[in-house]
Structures are given as structure tokens and as C-alpha cells.
Amino acid sequence: MATVPRNFRLLEELERGEKGIGDGTISYGLADGDDMLMSNWHGTIIGPLNTVHENRIYSLRILCGQDYPDRPPVVAFESRVNINCVNQHNGKVERLGCLDSWKRNYTLETVLSELR
Fold first, then answer.
1. Strand-strand pairing, 40-46 and 57-63
2. Contact status, residue 57 vs residue 72, Cβ threshold 8 Å
3. Is 74 exposed, middle or buried (0-12, 13-18, 19+ CB in 10 A)?
4. 59-76, pLDDT tens digit by residue?
5. Which of 18, 66, 77, 103 is a Cys-bridge partner for 91, taking CB atoms 3.0 to 4.6 Å apart?
């Protein structure tokens, strides 16, 4: 099977993120529309119902390096959040299952959904 080049893959993800996903509790898109390399992204998660995070809106920075999607993106919360997988000093997501055992077919949606 042919490997989809990085920019084509990111264009597909951008289109999906802009259309809205599922019930609207996660979204993502480019942080800067002029970012020709499509490296810097912004994500939003609305906390799940019946949890301490219910209805809270969390903002994230996502960096898709030149090796994405062969290597996982770097994800960090801009909002303060108390979750075990988040470094409390810099907001960086660490020890998240999908990032720790990254597969090429995972997407930004995969990461945001697992964080939610």
C-alpha cells in the first residue's frame, strides 16, 4: 500500500477538523492559516459529562514535526488541567497510550479523543 505524504495527510486532517467531529466536544485546526508546513495546530476539548471536567473548555497546542505521522505530535495544554498524563509545570502531555505506542494511522483526532 502507498504511503500518504505528510502534507496530504495533514490536509485531510485539517478538512476533518474544520468540519467538526462527532458531537462537537473536540475540535482542531491550524494555529496560523499561513503556516505552509502545517506544523502548529490548536485543539479544543470540552470536558466529558459526569466528571470534574464537565463542560470545561481546554485549549491545547499541537506541534506536528517533519516526521509526522511517522512520529507522534507534541501536545501541550494551554489551560491548566490536573490530569495524570500532563506535566504540571509545562502542560506537556506525557504517558498517554496513543502517544507512547504511536501508529502511523493515528490522527490528531485520536489524541484529542483519548485525552477527553
1. antiparallel
2. no
3. middle
4. 999 999 999 999 999 999
5. 77
What cell numbers appear for 59 in the block?
485549549
The whole-angstrom separation of Cα 107 and Cα 98 is 10
Does 82 have pLDDT greater than 80? yes
CA distance readout (Å), 5 to 8, 11, 74, 80, 81 = 6, 10, 19, 34, 34
Burial environment of residue 8 by CB neighbours within 10 A (0 to 12, 13 to 18, 19 or more): exposed
Nearest by Cα to 62 from 24, 101, 106: 106
Can you give the pTM of this predicted structure? 0.89
Residue 66's φ and ψ, nearest 5 degrees, are -65, -20
